[in-house]
Amino acid sequence: MSYFKEKPALSAMATNRSGAAQRPNGAPQTKVCQFKLVLLGESAVGKSSLVLRFVKGQFHEYQESTIGAAFLTQTVCLDDTTVKFEIWDTAGQERYHSLAPMYYRGAQAAIVVYDITNQDTFGRAKNWVKELQRQASPSIVIALAGNKSDLAAKRMVEFEEAQAYADENGLLFMETSAKTAMNVNDIFLAIANKLPKSEGGGSAGAGGARRLGDAEQARSSSCCK
Known about the structure:
The protein is α/β, with parallel strands linked by helices. It has helices at 47-56, 100-104, 119-135, 159-169, 184-194, 214-220; strands at 4-5, 14-15, 21-22, 31-41, 69-77, 81-90, 109-115, 141-147, 172-175, 210-211. The strands form 2 sheets. Strands 1, 4, 5, 6, 7, 8, 9 and 10 form an 8-stranded mixed sheet that branches.
């Protein structure tokens, strides 16, 4: 089963007699929820590469640095819910740090990324986690991504060290590789599963899901196949 599709086609969507959207396999699509997700981390840890791999299935060896932030969307289909991520990929350069609160404010999820070959980026990731815990929504789902796992021979941050830190702080944790696609879809899928899908969560600031309207559901409901 494929969970991801870059641009769902309206023609693939079916409806039942009541007009509710259905998955192509005939099962009714019960809920479509939208969440804001932000990526944070030091420059050159691979945030943009992770997003590009997740959204478009692509990897560029030489990725230009993000200026300010980039915005992309991607849809994940769970058993009874379609989750649409609004993804803000923030710049890691220090001069853009003051802009970060503008992007993580109201976010229901965050991925804090570090480079497993660079211990300093792990320390910086811890600072980002502290900032989110202090200033972001109390219910925000935070995932820690140890990127560049394809460079394990140059590892400076041990898996066990990062896992212990994640456990202590209640974080999701995976080592990822944007280059090989290892755990890229999985970390977004894990976040989608952990996010609350309550119908009453209309406020982004409160950390709840925003239910999409009929037209928006029509655009999102055909993502599963």
